[in-house]
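Why predict the complex rather than its parts? Because the way molecules touch one another can change local conformation, and only a joint prediction can capture that. The input here totals 974 residues.
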Amino acid sequence: MSTINQSGWRPQMNAVEGEAVATFTGNRALMLEEALIFEIGSLDTTGVDFAEAPQATSRLGGLERHRDIGLPGLSEPEAVRHYTRLSRQNYGIDLGFFPLGSCTMKHNPRLNERMARLPGFADIHPLQPIDTVQGALEVIDQLAHWLVTLTGMKAVAMSPKAGAHGELCGILAIKAALEARGEDRRVVLVPESAHGTNPATAAFAGFTVEDIPATPDGRVDVAALTARLGPDVAGVMITNPNTCGLFERDLKTISDAVHAAGGYVYCDGANFNAIVGKVRPGDLGVDAMHINLHKTFSTPHGGGGPGSGPVVLSEALAPFAPLPFVEQQDGRFVLVEEETAGEHHGSSFGRMVSFHGQMGMFTRALTYILSHGADGLKQVAEDAVLNANYVLRSMEDVLDAPFANSGPCMHEAIFSDRGLAEGFSTLDIAKGLIDEGFHPMTVYFPLVVHGAMLVEPTETESKAALDQFIGAFRSVAQRAKAGDAALKSAPHFAPRRRLDETQAARKPVLVWKEPAQAEAAE
Amino acid sequence: MRYLPLTQSDRQAMLAAVNAATIDDLFADVPESARLSGPVAGLPMHASELAVERHMSKLAAKNLSAGSAPFFLGCGAYKHHVPASVDHIIQRGEFLTAYTPYQPEIAQGTLQVMFEFQTQVARLLGTDVANASMYDGSTACWEAIGMARRITRRAKAILSGGLHPHYVSVANTMAKYTGDTLVTAVPELTAEPDTAKLIDLIDDDTSCVVVQYPDILGRIADLSDLAAACQAKKALLVAVVTEPVALGAIKSPGEMGADIVVGEGQSIGVGLQFGGPYVGLFGCKEKYVRQMPGRLTGETVDAEGKRGFVLTLSTREQHIRREKATSNICTSSVLCALAWSVHMTLLGEKGLRQLAALNHAGASAAADRLAQVPGVELVTPTFFNEFTLKLPKEARPVVRALADKGILAGVSLGRLYPGEEALENGLVVAVTETTTAEDVETLAAALQEVLA
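Output of the joint prediction:
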């Protein structure tokens, strides 16, 4: 085990080519470089005071640790400074517009955070006696009630920990329902425009995945889909609104055909934000749909998680929902776990996670839902869709918009790289937007559009914010069309210039090593 | 509707700009029959911040929080003191409200934290590498079983009886669909873990042996012989750690030869939260890195040669490989990983060792005191901060009776293993630095009363 580099901060001369002034430290006023904890911490430093442990006989079975682990410590002021400095190299929705299509970056109300931190929610153990956690179970029950009511479904499985985990839950429910019918259907149909997680999920659950093409106007090819239905098809996985930003007009027709052929309909609910309060997926014949609480109901993304992906289920799939779940019995809430399941929930396909799901996310989502109410949630969908169409119509004369004539877009607008100057790509536009102070849109997704740019404004952006973004987006797009060479090397003003991803993948460096050790490993 | 900035006149101007007369023109593709005219029936309308706060606070007040009672629960979730600065840092908007770092030039904060987290986790678990976190310990565990299947091209996993029963349930659920065969057992109320039995079970079809360390009853087993036995049969040893603080006092599974080490990181930085969100830890030997699920951050340089970090090896992931992906995991638990990493940095080597020593000493004293209660027997001679008692009667109703007295006494094995009569008198008790001598005395006295 290596010791920790005690040499501390190593000044670097970071003269930037073409810039007149270099700094001794590499810092630039408020833009501060920050070393790794392994380079600035030490094994003897701690930021926590403990009482002296009483002398006691060790009962560790002779496995006492003798060697150092190699964990650097920082005092509290050093630690706060380290992480604060790092935070300043991050873009977040609190800083500005974050138009990531399909990711739904909306304002995160701080009331949600405050409520999630109430000791009655944050400081309770998942295995406490049920009578001591009645309020927590009531939160789950209330949120579940909102989710089934808003979607027009029969039941909801709360435990999946993220959207893709929810997909798995829905697919396993379908598999369990088929097994209960004694049928061995092996094929899941997935339209080309579906999220990449959809085929991965179906394959993971042992199904064979078959692609269904999209029509030129960006929707599922209904004829191709219905033609493929048969006794070997377990179901379809469809995204609505889809990844082209469009509403699948024919979803009800598709559902009816799938049901008539004995299959089930899984709907990827990642884009529920666009239709919440306006359309109930249950009315369109959906059997299972996950809801990314972080997207539609504003729980923070946190740099890539944690998420939360409850799955609403139709009457046909409800009996197969995973354990555990909350029920009301004789005026109190109970948690149905393995022990009681056999009595009246014998069809459940089992348990997906060790405890009851993302309770901290449930609290935040319920807080947000109650703040908006049924009227506010309807307004959410309307404003999100209005904002997206506003971006689409403000850009379509500058950038190719492949589905501009396919009807209104839902919550996201899609553009392609057609018409950019030779050698310029979607990535150059993305990096150009960084210099303008915006997080770029989603790029190269969905796969059905060449050089795709997927812009999702969400309902928490003002008209002024959109106008500023549109101005910048138009300017960068025009530079890419004109072949402005400076755009090729953007970003110029970010904490880092373009990073070498090929080197990172070819020779992965995934943990820090003492420089001497790292050299020896060369 | 304080979160919606558009004014009525903004909306009118924007509708005109997109050439729509009404907002419903933009929902024209939704079939008339499925369109809702007004707000969804049967749900309340929007509410003020004050009203919502009042509603949620009332619900919170119906729960007995761990900090307001003598508290002894463990079994996969532990109550530790989390320094105030941890919560401060994760609430900084730049961390809290960022997205997955797909644009590394403006996400170096998250990426550097992930790289530091990977290094801290790998060192703690004793593995060469670690990923940037999983959903939780239980999902990390079944992902490890899947990874062992891919590496060994065998599908029989042997699960120790000492593995958390919920982890076994999750693995069972998945195995029904992935084709793994699981050999499972329940623990026995004995001093010795089932290591020897596990060694006997390994054969040429075995993909991996999964063992918890310390196990569900709190026992600690030397894994060296098991690791050697696995290696001899070309099977992998998967170790599961649900209380990472223990590794401040005892050898890591990686040091004893485990190929994959997974863990539940909750006890450092995250808090109880009624079971989630938590943070799964996942480390392995370097040669298996391309079979490892989850996100990875790697070091690289930018166009000016400055060190920077990016997400890497994403060719294993579902958004590129679709149905050929390594797993369907599409996210991680980055904010919890940040909390974990900040807490670990505040502890450092020195603090973690002090914390571990405090936990062990407190648990030792508590075990001795509780074993003095008439009829109560200490089952586990070796343990870290969690041990198992055998009561003279069924533990479940005892725990409920103690809860009525405002004491959260521990986890009854009857709750974890319904229907297993041999275990129903077992009570698993956890003690951490948050437990006071007075708490232990209160529990001992109340236990004596309830058992009398």
